[in-house]
């Protein structure tokens, strides 16, 4: 079986969030199950590869696209669109104004590459590749397509006036097709025209069919519920394992080694090493719970915690977080940037890891933090609810602390439960080491994808 993976970010070439981790790890695990995988990604600034061929892509005019390759990854090269500092937008401004053109070109080029080779399945991820199933269907291709939703909050919506550049029949621009209140919705194309739709946890697959989490697409998703599946993401333990991680201060396999990493992190961040640390590594976006968090961070610090944050995103939260750092310079350390090495060090050096998400399709942060013995404190939603279970100090069961109501009050309550467990050093050590034992490797989930691909080929 030969599968083409299409994503707009793939580790180690380009990353803003969890999609890159998934697209970097899942193809390799599928290879081990006997599936041949090829990956397609835009050739962003800094990506090299070897030139393999040239394509002419029609999008109102002819665009001369080049294809480069490294191992099993093909890069779609069109410097005018992809040789930029950001993936989807500039650092200071919002999204690039021509994202519709950029990712239409990407989808058209990948569709052409697929039609020139023998693929059984094309597996597309998120809105940036969501037009491919529609391009294949409208061309009468018999390649089967799977579309995975990593985050329904990002839909690739563009003004209806851009429809003509997509190069498809007008019949698709209706509310039953890819129109959404007069706009084009790329995500709808993926949901409606793929042979199977998946999302990244079972709970999120249920949630997105409700108005609370459906972002207006709940009815479209319900219509496809007979071929909508939740498959939990795994973690690439080749990259995320404190026993072998050469980006952390000192490798470790138990609580004692973790304590050393905490001391180094305290030194690097210039904060008090004796207090419990809450770490957070996140896109700084409303989705991630910054509205309820910023209201009570001072309360958390007063309760006794240090707070170390690494993230980048919405300016209004940057300002609030930086203000807090000014008030508590030896207890709060805020790093507004993307920094993979520091991320590894925070996972290793924190006692707790916070994810107060409003919604969370799967979440990788909590899976990584478990492996590093950094105890998750999370909101009970999406994949967080599927992977984290409240710690019970009597039974010594569970792996973290959860809160259900999306409120600052409920968040503080969970943080305070975490604090009382931290104060009992023996119990906290047991909990931290218990977290390190959880196994969320890709093998089980990759088998589910393989089964799904096979079922599509049977039809
Ligand atoms: P999402 O995909 O919604 O951003 P996930 O929890 O699924 O959230 O995945 C986030 C991934 O991105 C994790 O690997 C996390 O460590 C990483 N990450 C997020 N922000 C940063 C940052 N500022 N610097 C380094 N890594 C980051």
What's this model, at a glance?
The chain has 459 residues and is of the alpha/beta class.
Explain the overall architecture:
The chain has 459 residues and is of the alpha/beta class. It is 39% helix and 21% strand. The chain contains 17 helices and 18 strands. α10 links the parallel β13 and β14. It is globular. 49% of the residues are buried. The mean pLDDT is 97. The protein binds adenosine-5'-diphosphate.
- Number of H/I helices: 17
User: Mind telling me the C-alpha Rg?
Assistant: 22 Å
Estimate the helix proportion, in percent.
25-40%
Gap between N and C termini: 15 Å
Average predicted confidence as pLDDT:
97
Shape: globular
List low-pLDDT spans.
Answer: none
- Secondary-structure-based class equals alpha/beta
Strand percentage = 15-25%
Total beta strands: 18
Strand order of the largest sheet: 3-4-5-2-1-6-7-11-12
Which ligands, by name, code or SMILES, are bound? adenosine-5'-diphosphate
Q: How many strands, which pairing sense, and closed or not: the largest β-sheet?
A: 9 strands, mixed
Features:
single chain; 18 strands; alpha/beta; binds adenosine-5'-diphosphate; 459 residues; 17 helices; globular; 6-stranded parallel β-sheet
Topology:
Elements: E1 2-6, H1 18-32, E2 36-42, E3 50-59, E4 61-70, E5 73-77, H2 79-82, H3 99-115, E6 121-125, H4 131-138, E7 144-149, E8 157-159, H5 163-166, E9 179-180, E10 183-185, H6 186-193, E11 196-199, H7 202-207, H8 218-223, E12 228-230, H9 255-269, E13 277-284, H10 290-303, E14 306-313, H11 315-327, E15 332-336, H12 340-349, E16 352-355, H13 365-371, E17 375-379, H14 382-387, E18 401-403, H15 408-423, H16 425-436, H17 443-458
Parallel strand pairs: 1-2, 1-6, 2-5, 6-7, 7-11, 11-12, 13-14, 13-16, 14-15, 16-17, 17-18
Antiparallel strand pairs: 3-4, 4-5, 8-10, 9-10
Helix pairs in contact: 3-4, 4-6, 9-12, 10-11, 10-15
Adenosine-5'-diphosphate binds next to helix 1, strand 13, strand 14 and helix 12.
């Amino acid at each position: 079986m030969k599968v083409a993976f299409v994503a707009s970010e793939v580790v180690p070439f380009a990353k803003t969030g969890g999609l890159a981790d998934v697209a970097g790890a899942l193809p390799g695990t599928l290879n081990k199950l006997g599936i041949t995988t090829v990956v397609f990604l835009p050739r962003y600034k800094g990506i090299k590869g070897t030139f393999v061929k040239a394509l002419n892509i029609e999008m109102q005019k002819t665009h001369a696209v080049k294809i480069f390759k490294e191992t099993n990854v093909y890069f779609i090269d069109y410097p005018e669109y992809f040789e930029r500092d950001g993936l989807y937008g500039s650092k200071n401004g919002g999204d690039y104004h021509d994202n519709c053109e950029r990712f239409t070109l990407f989808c058209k080029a990948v569709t052409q590459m697929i039609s020139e080779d023998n693929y059984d399945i094309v597996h597309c991820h998120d809105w940036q590749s969501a037009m491919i199933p529609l391009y294949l269907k409208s061309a009468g291709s018999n390649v089967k397509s799977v579309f995975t939703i990593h985050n329904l909050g990002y839909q690739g919506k563009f003004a209806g006036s851009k429809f003509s550049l997509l190069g498809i029949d007008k019949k698709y621009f209706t509310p039953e097709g890819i129109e959404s209140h007069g706009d084009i919705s790329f995500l709808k194309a993926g949901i409606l025209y793929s042979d199977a739709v998946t999302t990244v946890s079972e709970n999120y697959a249920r949630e997105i069919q409700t108005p609370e989490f459906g972002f207006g697409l709940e009815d479209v998703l319900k219509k496809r519920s007979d071929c909508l599946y939740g498959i939990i993401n795994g973690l690439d333990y080749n990259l995320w394992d404190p026993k072998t991680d050469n980006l952390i201060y000192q490798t470790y396999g138990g609580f004692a080694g973790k304590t050393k990493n905490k001391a180094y992190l305290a030194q690097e961040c210039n904060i008090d090493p004796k207090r419990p640390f809450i770490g957070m590594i996140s896109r700084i976006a409303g989705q991630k719970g910054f509205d309820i968090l910023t209201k009570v961070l001072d309360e958390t610090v007063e309760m006794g915690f240090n707070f170390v944050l690494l993230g980048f995103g919405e300016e209004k939260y940057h300002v609030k977080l930086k203000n807090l750092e000014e008030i508590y310079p030896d207890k709060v350390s805020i790093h507004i940037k993307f920094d993979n090495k520091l991320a590894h060090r925070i996972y290793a050096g924190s006692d707790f890891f916070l994810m107060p998400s409003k919604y969370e399709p799967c979440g990788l942060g909590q899976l990584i933090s478990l492996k590093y013995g950094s105890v998750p404190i999370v909101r009970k939603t999406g994949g967080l609810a599927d992977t984290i279970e409240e710690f019970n100090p009597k039974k010594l069961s569970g792996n973290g602390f959860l809160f259900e109501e999306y409120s600052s009050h409920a968040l503080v309550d969970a943080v305070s439960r975490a604090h009382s467990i931290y104060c009992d050093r023996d119990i906290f050590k047991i909990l931290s080491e218990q977290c390190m034992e959880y196994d969320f490797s890709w093998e089980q989930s990759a088998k589910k994808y393989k089964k799904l691909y096979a079922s599509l080929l049977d039809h």
